[in-house]
Amino acid sequence: MSGIASILNTDLLVATIRLSTPITLAAIGATICERSGIVNIAMEGIMIIGAFFAAVAALYTGNPWIGLLAGVAAGGIFSLIHAVATITFHLDHVVSGAVMNILSFGIVRYLMVMIFGHPGTSDAIPVGLKAYQFAIPGLSKIPVLGPVFFDQTPIVYMSFVLVILTLIFLKKTKTGLHLRAAGEHPLALETIGVSVYKMRYLGVFISGLLSGLAGAYLSIENSISFTEGMANGRGFIALAAMISGGWSAIGSFVAALFFGFADAFQVRMQVFKVLNIPSEIFIIFPYVATVLAVAGLVRKSRPPKADGIDFIIEKEGA
Amino acid sequence: MSKMTKITVIMLVISMVFAGLIFANGGSETAPAAEKSKVIIGMATDVGGLGDKSFNDGSYQGLLDAKADFGIDARVVESKQQTDYVPNLSGLAEDGAQVVFAVGFLMGDALIEAAENHPDTSFAGIDIFVDPSKAPKNVEGLLFKEQESGYVAGVVAGLLTKKYASASDRLNDDNVVGMVLGMDIPPVERYQAGFYAGVKSVNPDCKVLSVVTGTFTDQAKGKEAALAMIEQGADIIFQIAGLTGLGAINAANEAGVAAIGVDVDQSGVAPDAVITSAIKGITRAVYLTIKADLEGTFEGGGNKVFGINEDTTGISPFNKWDSIVPGDVKAAVQKAIDDLKSGKVVAPASRKEAGYEG
Amino acid sequence: MQITKLKPLFYTVIVLLALVGSLMYFASIFSGILLILAAAVLYFVYYGLSVGKGASKALALSFLKSLLIPVIGVASALLIGGIIMAVTGYDPVTAYKALFYGGLVKNWSVSVLNAAPLIFTGLSIAFAFKAGLFNIGAEGQYYVGAVVATFLGLHFNMPALLSIPIIFLVAGLLAASYNFIPALLKVKTGAHEVITTMMFAQIARYLSSIFIRGMGGSSDGPHPYVTDPILKSNWLLKMKSIFPHANYRVHIGILIAIGMALFVQYILTRTKFGFEIRAVGQNKDAARGQGIKVGRNIFIALLFAGFLAGFSGVNQVLGLDHKLYENLNAGYGWDGISVALLASNNPIGVIFTSLLWGVLAAGGQYMSRTVQTPNSIVEIIKGIILFLIVAKYIYIHIGHKFKNKKKEEREAVK
């Protein structure tokens, strides 16, 4: 079947990157967050918030870069709610995450009606970040892989850099090591005088920024407007990516690529109508792949020791 | 009583008083102030709500057009779940609406129920099939022959993609066109079947591709579907996917190829890329129905099919592409419209009828 | 006189009063509330007579206390919502008048219809939470229940008394088995059920289209993809057949839901299984130390959660729509999360939070229609109410600080 062979080309790989970028960003954010000991299932909601504010800011200033900053900032600020709820008020992490997701839909819907007069889709922004796509001279000419990694749009480049930065942060920097200690041996960390609370706040905040960036990608780089519900489950796939990647930066990246590939592949398979089966069978392919990945790979990794376990410093009175 | 208990009781009492204040005044029905002697026309949308840039918006536009021309009081309610359909439709009737519109096939049963309970109000359902043998006389179904609009759009695509590809840089010689579908539901399928037939009628060798995204609200999936087909040489992408389709149009625009919109004139989304749009004529249908009721010619108890003959279906103006599209293509479009009107050509309403596997 | 000898009599009367009263109230016969109140009063009277006046008063007080947090939470959210409305140019007083009138009086039947499926999914999620699991994929199990119920509803030609329970059971079991793989993976590999059940929910959502297409509707005509209507004998009983003046759409699904809530409460508090589930939910390792088979309990808990969520789908098909539409945005699985969290995972509490959610939804629609205030303010209010569950923890936190401060003051005085 020459038809199928024709889809195994550079375009497929470029599509893989395109589809995996938001997952990568949210997943490495989740990695940092969970490494500090806070479970974060609110990435879906934070992504939506980031996407919304990115689009609104880009619309009103006409500048997508401001949109990008707005999306990232909005994600970070929104995630602080999760931080306060879980760290200071000791609320169950999963419960708080679920509430965040629900809250995000309500907030966005109301703001949509306030700003645009109707729910659904925002107006189109004048310039998206796609317009700032650029190719790195020389490297982009490498056969097959050149266009994939070196002829991309801004946030995609950022995602590559951020994966490496996350790796360095977690493994080589003092703050990163403290952060990981907050998730593995919080008591030990406190005894050397570093605040576990502070480290966890940092972890949650960073994951908020990154999920916000993922959302901004969805609304102002991969498209030019915001649609309610446009995350469509990517926040949860990012969670799966982090888990199957073993709570590591590189692992999350690879897992995200895997899911992006599954989705890109599924679409192209439909174009060829290989088998005369209902299109829904193709559409569920990425979701089935996620389950298989989580099932097969989880055995090889374990979460940080103090992940999801509440940490309370009792300050006794006089 | 301990201090804690005292505080508890006090706070509880305060909460109850607060709640009570709200209740005390809500004992009577809140009837909205009707604008003096204006006819009220109501519309209840489906859970998709306004802002979908096609279906619900198109219907509401019909209401607004009627407001501009006839000075009616237009009321719209967005349903949140299926339990809201009947209360919304009945409620609008109780508010005194003369005509109540239900938008979308999911509201079919609710429409009939509401109509039965309010025999003095006219009801109309968009995309809702009313069974003439069973339905009450005050409800009318508004059905659309999307396949006819799809057919005309297909003629445009079929000619531009190969024979007249030189007319624009956005067109190539590969003789491939693509369709992006939202969910595989009948209105979408009708567009798809009609488009296929239209393409084949002027360009039998053209390769027609389709991808189903499974959602009407995921722009990224629409973009992906479009790009997958563009990679295979498609130079015209027909979107039948609501908001997902906006992603498809933008992808076509960014990739330097062309697109065709759906339901309403979508050239505004990407003026350089959108050749035309396959129109569903919902706006016109709503407008005409209101007009008919105001003039006393409302025909309940059956369906009104809006096809090419009612000048409500077809394609939108070429807008920016008007100078690009060759005269021969425009002539072919007119011929297709005439053939559909006269019945010489019947656009297929399903993939099976069109002989297309999708 | 041994008052306890009369216990069966008292309890029978109380249950009857509560049952008839609720039935009436759900059928929009609001005088039913008097019967419910009578039942409650009778309960406290019996308690006072048998245990002692003081204990009865304490019971009443503790009951009111437990209501405090949710009531304050809701009231505060409404207050904040009102401020938001006022700030953005809408009149909160008229809006709330419409909201409550619509939800509680005029369209109370809609609130009840909204609540029934929520109770089922809420129970599903609450039960799973008791075992320390997050059955976030309840939406998928809902779809399975709905599809199976439609299929059986189309083909089962038996008297309603027989067929309806069978349909519920079969659909519930199949919905339970839909959670089989996530449960297995959780136990064998530790795979987080949030991800697996979520993925399965998406799969169910897309695959249900295939089944719906296969169950009727012709693709030739203008009729869209909806299944044929199920046999009339498989319709859930309408309230109208008991109370002729009731709204014609309300059905007894709400009673089945409440019954199920009582059943789940019974399982959790009175059975060994329930005890083990709760122990596992509190502390897995401690439970294992006590000899409880943790893996087995988690497995069964997830399946039972699936069973409950499946009932939600059955309720909608057999009671409300009597058919299944493609492209139907149910959402009960997601709202079930809110409802369970708000009730602190208490099965009885789920009944009330579901009704609250139902009222807000129905009232919100009424409000948006009559006073043209955007419906989305209700979404915000729901979100704030939800977030104020944290109020419970803030309350405890403040309570601790308060206690510590008192301790410091006492020490300082010394």
Explain this structure.
The complex is a heterotrimer of chains A (318), B (358) and C (414). Chain A has helices at 2-5, 10-35, 43-61, 64-88, 93-116, 145-150, 154-172, 174-184, 186-191, 196-221, 234-244, 249-272, 279-283, 285-297, and strands at 134-135, 151-152. Chain A is mostly helical and 318 residues long. Chain A has one domain (2-128, 140-297): ABC transporter involved in vitamin B12 uptake, BtuC. Chain A has a two-stranded antiparallel ribbon. Chain B folds into three domains: 1-33, no CATH class; 40-144 and 283-308, Rossmann fold (3-Layer(aba) Sandwich), CATH 3.40.50; 146-280 and 326-354, Rossmann fold (3-Layer(aba) Sandwich), CATH 3.40.50. Chain B contains eleven helices and twelve strands. In chain B, the strands form two sheets. Chain B has a six-stranded parallel β-sheet, with helices on both faces. In chain B, strands 7-6-8-9-10-12 form a six-stranded mixed β-sheet, with helices on both faces. In chain B, helix 2 packs parallel to helix 9 (282-295), helix 5 packs parallel to helix 6 (186-202) and helix 5 (146-161) packs antiparallel against helix 10 (327-342). By secondary structure, chain C is mostly helical. Chain C has two domains: 1-55; 65-395, ABC transporter involved in vitamin B12 uptake, BtuC (Orthogonal Bundle), CATH 1.10.3470. At the A-B interface, helix 2, helix 12 and helix 13 of A face strand 7, helix 7 and helix 8 of B.
